[in-house]
Amino acid sequence: QVIGGCFRVRQNADNFLAKLQKNGFKSEMKVQPNGSFLVIVQSYSDKNEATIALRNLREAEPQIGYWMSGN
Question: How far, in Å, CA of 18 to CA of 37, rounded?
């Protein structure tokens, strides 16, 4: 999974999620046990594909702290 962010304010997570979906990603949001909102850019079955996607996202938007999760 490529993660786009973890937000305390749901509206911020909703806005970011909508932006990703508008850009064609199969994004989703998950509520974490601490009440924060994790925005998943997209899940990938292949780690190499996820790594390429992560690199492309970081190059396109370096101000956003994208990261990859193994979950």
Answer: 14
How much of the chain is in helix, strand and coil states, percent to nearest 5? 40, 25, 35
Q: Per the confidence metrics, is the pTM higher than 0.85?
A: yes
27-63 pLDDT per residue, tens: 999 999 999 999 999 999 999 999 999 999 999 999 9
Using CA of residue 40, residue 44, residue 47, residue 49, what is the dihedral sign?
negative
Q: Which residues of 1-36 are buried (b: 16+ CB within 10 A; e: fewer)?
A: bbbbbebeeeeebeebbeebeeeebebebeeeeeee
